[in-house]
Amino acid sequence: MTTRLRGLSPLYLAGFTTAFGAHGVAAAVGTETDDLGLSFAALGLILAVYDIAEVVLKPLFGALSDRIGVKPVIVGGLLAFAVASLLGVFASSFVLLAIARLGQGAAAAAFSPASSSAVARMVGPSLAGRYFGRYGSWKSLGYGGGPLIGAVLIMWAGLPALFLALAVLAVGAAIWVQVAMPAMPVLPKQRVTLIELVRQSTAPVFLGPVLLLAVATATLGIAVGFLPLIATRLGLDPIIAMGVVSALAIVSALVQPRFGRVHDDAPTRVVPVMLVAAALLVAALALVAFLPATPTIVIAAVAIGLGVGAITPLGFARLASTTPAERMGRTMGSAELGREVGDAGGPILVGLVAAAATLPVALAASAIVVAVTAASGAGMMSTTAEHARPPA
User: Fold this and answer.
1) Are 320 and 243 in contact (CB under 8 A)?
2) Phi, psi of 375 (to 5 degrees)
3) Given CB 3.0 to 4.6 Å as the disulfide criterion, which of 38, 111, 157, 323 pairs with 161?
4) How far apart are CA 248 and CA 319, in angstroms?
5) What is the pLDDT of residues 249-289, one digit of tens each?
6) Which residues of 89-117 are buried (b: 16+ CB within 10 A; e: fewer)?
7) How far apart (Å, rounded) are the C-alpha atoms in residues 141 and 314?
């Protein structure tokens, strides 16, 4: 087990890469919305196109990792991500930028769920909370470091420099995974009918955690795309505006390992903790909607960091502890689909409502949607709590 756990480090870098790629570029576009001539709806689309590709492809790549093994899917996805990032280096128009982001999202759809599946299989259900907390912490560092590093690169050589850095990082991660990660054997699977597949995907034991994960990523996507925009319109420097997102991600990175332990040490507290975390997300959106100012933006960023930092490791650990190893990739891919629906849907919702009304109205509407969805997910998790205790 010790040798196998050492192979987790390249998976942490893979998680950092997808987070950096998703939110580093997204935050940069958010601060340059006016310079690029983007409307609210266009900004929402640019923020969402990365996730739209992931929504479509993650379940497919997750199932593929069960069939051929997680390692080749991770390595291939990282290399494809590097190619798409190189395309972004030469993106001189809105259309080319959207195509590059679509390619990055498609590549991330391969290596992200495969990495989650590898973590779950390498650590086992009894340690899932701890290690998903660490994995999520590194992803949060990507969310936090991405905007700041992106701001520096853009000031130095424009948006192409950011895409070039992502290409180099993806190649490095692919090499490290190939060299350091142990091979994971392909497990025999039982054939399932379409009806059984639908039943598994809609079962409360699966759908409950996924709804809460979607709530967390929806709020995170809104924060990454629109908090920098609000901050810059309040007169803050773009680097400081991106720093708000970085503060959010740093808070999330710090608390995820701690919250992950709740799943392993006190599984009966998982649902209450996730409910409190969801309440923080709702309160943060409402605060920025009704009191947009520099102090409230900072408070909201910290609250969102805490909420996301609690929900993410607990949701994935719950899924890992209730899923047979032979279909872990498919489950993680489907769960990631739910998260990406939230990550794409959140910015689209805010962008469309803001275009029709105002940005505060859009944020208030998103707070209502988050509250209703979180309550539904927590209710499902409560009804299936007896099936979710991780074995010793």
Assistant:
1) no
2) -65, -40
3) 157
4) 25
5) 889 888 888 888 888 888 788 889 999 999 999 999 999 99
6) bebeeeeebbbbbbbbbbbbbbbbbbbbb
7) 18
